[in-house]
Amino acid sequence: MTRRQLSGIGVSPGVAIGPALVVHWGLPKVPERAIAESETGREIARLHDAIAAVAANLTELRRRAEQRVGPDEAKIFDAQLLMLRDEDFTRGVERLIHDNQLSAEQAFEFKALEVRALWAQSSSERLRQRIADLSGIAIRILYQLLGQPIETLFERVGKDPVIVFARELAPGLTLQFDREHVAGFASEEGTRTSHAAILARSLGIPCVMGVFGGMTAISPGAPVLLDGTHGTLVLHPTSDEIREARGQERRRHALERALEKGIGQTAITLDGTSVTLRGNVDLPEELEPAAQHGAEGVGLVRTEFLLMGRTELPTEEEQLRFFEKVARRFPGHPIIIRSYDLGGDKFPAPFRPPPEANPFLGWRAIRVCLDQPELFRTQIRAVLRARLHGDVQLMLPLITGLEEVERTRELVREAAVELARQGIPAADYVPIGVMIETPAAAILAEQLAARSDFVSVGSNDLTQYTLAVDRGNARLADRFTPFHPAVIRSLHHIWDSCRRVGLPLSVCGEMASEPVAVFLLLALGYRVFSIAPPALPLIRWLVRQIDLDRARQVGDRVLAASTMADVVHAVEGGLSEHVNLKLLDAGRLPKSRRQASFTP
Ligand code: PEP
Ligand code: MG
């Protein structure tokens, strides 16, 4: 990359060109101001006035969001409004004013920075993602308390639609501008799941996040070419670069039209082999998109959302209601409920573990469930009860040995007996599947397959643990790739083990949502994929272009490869015989950090 080019994570697809508007969306300088004891009451009143004014302002932005993008997206502002009305937080600020005789702005800044530091250190990705929301509120409150109009931050020079660049994009910032005044958004912080990213996608505005160093590299007013599909920014683009980007945009639209035509078609290869495409559901909101994009069931329900932001455990009834809802939405198809994949900071308050030196190698996933049978039993009971409403199955994450599967079977048997004794209608059996995510499970694949009802490859963790590369570490993003020969051989061994035992096998990691990786998996023999809902149309279209006889030859070449470069060469060469790689590239989903290097 030359210094004119900056890279990050594409979070909202499309190409945009315009002058940069560098927004210094940060905390304003707060002057030190000692207050007398007698003034604390007045400062606390000022604090409450500011909170009320900012709440009114956010409510207005919420209304704008509802008008421009819809009621679901408008709910994003509820998170900020909720934070703003957090009584613990406000009481903390009041105490600082009162006990330390700080001005309202000094006290608020102090408290906001304290909470921010706490969240930034947290290993919970969700908490880290909410930092932009917290900063958004803090900035607005401080501007309000200092009596400075926040609008001065957003003044444009000239008439052309701008590329807004900020260190951090709070959701309010995406709606602060009129649509016709903004061509694109970019920021140093943030990921695909940040609220601002979600809004940019809904608004159809290209957006790139994670552009480290952008605030210093981009001068205000400089022409910028932003590519939200590939996650790049080019400063002072040449006419050739602009022409190429526009060509890519045309290909993206052409592919989109092809994908639209594919709605309602089955995923069948050119030689007539059917491939099963299921959806991954991480949040309840993904249920509808999965169904609308024709998912044949749900291959992975990530149940951790049930615990997020809560202080108590979800009840059996609550879990049952959700599992039943999923089952009813996909009649006749499997619904694979993954038991809690807790780890790091993803713990409900009653189970917060002591800090660990290596949380990724620590007390997580199936280990927590087996060590906390009460937590697990409630989930198992909900699964057994939900099985009366559909083909609900149970899947276990981070398995390393047979004992974990056997112990789970015992717990399932005990729960079934207990439910029967209590006269509660429930199934007396549930198929139990194993996620292959660790080298131990991969090596033991045949033994695990012999004792399980199905196997699903968690390719994210399998890659992470096989290569000893942290999947969330941006610095290692290039090294985190399933195109490594060791991962390929592991995938082959798993496939071969399941074939010998005759056990259903699928892939539910991000590989299954990435077209080049899906071609590789098809070449290796995999036929069932569980996919992020937005990727379903593209993967279905891809499957329909593939001739498996030719793909199998690619599989042989890939298995003979001993370097990553050889793997990439074989896969790209094979795929280019089936589809125009440029076309595919143009239609790729924006990359998340963990997907960042999935594609060669
Ligand atoms: C995986 O590891 O590939 C997987 C599907 O599980 P998660 O991404 O939730 O860890
Ligand atoms: Mg995993």
Radius of gyration: 26 Å
What's the tally of helices? 25
Strand arrangement in the largest pleated sheet: 1-8-7-3-4-5-6-2
Poorly predicted regions: 589-600
Q: What would you call the structural class? A: alpha/beta
Which band does the percent of strand residues land in?
A: 5-15%
In percent, how helical is the residue content? 40-55%
Ligand list:
phosphoenolpyruvate, magnesium ion
Question: End-to-end span in angstroms?
Answer: 16 Å
The largest β sheet comes out as: 8 strands, mixed
Roughly what is the average pLDDT, rounded to an integer?
89
SS elements, strand count: 16
Given the C-alpha coordinates, what overall shape results?
Answer: globular
Notes on the protein architecture:
With 600 residues, the protein is α/β, with parallel strands linked by helices. Helix content is 48%, strand content 13%. It has 25 helices and 16 strands. Bound molecules: phosphoenolpyruvate (PEP) and magnesium ion. The site of magnesium ion has 5 residues, from α19. Residues 397, 437, 458, 460-461 line the site of magnesium ion.
